[in-house]
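Handout for the seminar on molecular recognition.
Each group receives one record of this type.
Step one: identify the two inputs.
Step two: read the structure output and locate the region that could contact cobalt (II) ion.
Step three: write two sentences on what you found, then compare them with the reference statements printed after the record.
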Amino acid sequence: MTGTRGIHHIGVAVHDVAAAVERYALLVGATVDHEAVVDEQGVHAVALRAGDGPLIELLAPTGDDTPVGRFLAKRGEGMHHVAYEVDDLRAHLERLRAEGVELIDAEPRNGLFGMQVAFIHPEAAFGCLVELVQPKEHA
Ligand code: CO
């Protein structure tokens, strides 16, 4: 088993990032850690820090015809994915693929905030969309 460092962030799909930032500040004292608009992924993302725990990744679509836009149309706002940090994403994916796990991303790709990421299919994780991330500081 390659190293896993626990939950890195929780992804939450929202319509209005600014409103969500304000609400999470009220609810749990969360502060903005970083923010990015990534047109190629169709997402406006804000990572919030709330104490020492995992980050909260707010995701708003930049348009209706985007992954998060389609998610919101189908499911509404709410929990989108759980991201786990791994030491060696490529090796981790190879091991899962060898075990026949259904992956959305067979190879690491560029994710938000400079991370290498890959998504695992929800059917392989009991209905949860799971993201594996390898932050660049130990890529
Ligand atoms: Co994420």
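Reference statements: Strands lie at 4-13, 31-38, 43-49, 55-61, 78-86, 109-110, 116-120, 130-134. The pocket of cobalt (II) ion is lined by residues 9, 11, 57, 81, 83, 131 (CB under 6 Å).
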